[in-house]
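QUALITY CONTROL LOG
STEP: pairwise intake check
CHECKER ROLE: data steward
CRITERIA: each record must contain a sequence immediately followed by its structure tokens, with no blank fields

ENTRY 1 OF 2
RESULT FIELD BELOW
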Amino acid sequence: MVYSELTEDERRTMARMRQLVSEVAGAIGKRWPPEGVDEGLGLLQALIDEEAFSKPIGLTAYGVCFGDLHCMAGPLRWTHQESEVACGAYVRWKETSIGINATYMIRKRIEAGQPVDIRDVFKNQLEQCQEIEDNGAQ
């Protein structure tokens, strides 16, 4: 895998998605970006529970904001990843090959009709990244 900074197109797309979440949050008296991770997780859960978005772009917007919360919480950052099977924005754990495909993580669950407990998914992702690193992954 090859990692680099986000492309300008990725940055613009992600900014539009954050704006979409910000507008919907504003309509219910909330704000994006949040003051902290806990507030952000609560807001995303409320939007998911209210089914504020149903189209793929809106569902992917959840993922961008979910990734932002990971970056706020731990040693993760947005990066551009290229591999044999995928190319795009990716939340990377430190300078390792460990990461989170945050942009589709929430979307795939919603589209599959699975319940989403955003706090649980968030906690599990951070724990898994740490566990993988502890087991020697680079």
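ENTRY 2 OF 2
RESULT FIELD BELOW
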Amino acid sequence: MVLINRGSYMEGHMRTGLKIISILQIIAGLFVAGAGALTAALFASGDTSVGSTVEMVTLSVVLFVLEGALGIISGALGLRAARNPEKSMLAVIWGGLTLALSVFSLATEPSVQQLFSCIIPLLYFIFARNVRKSRK
């Protein structure tokens, strides 16, 4: 009979979960930032299907790029925390902040889409917090 230390077993799963969520956030961040760059390129080329006003397209591009950058930062912090739990405090804070913003968004505009948009930040926060606890 093989005895498994449950603590290290769960710690490994939490670190793996954080790595997976972080990689997904980096990929999503790259796609979102790329969509912003594509929108800017289409507008610059004179494509009329993109938007009618410069201000609206500019705001859209800035928000796309900002959201993409935040996803990439979130993923990088999560990967850093998964590699070294001693450096996980920033990932926990970041995860709590993104979760709070997602819940606020859900509270201001309740919908199924907003509910689903809370899942990734919730998982990220749970994994980061548990990785942080495992460092002891």
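INTAKE CHECK: passed for both entries
DESCRIPTIVE NOTE, ENTRY 2: Residues 6-44 form the longest helix (39 residues).
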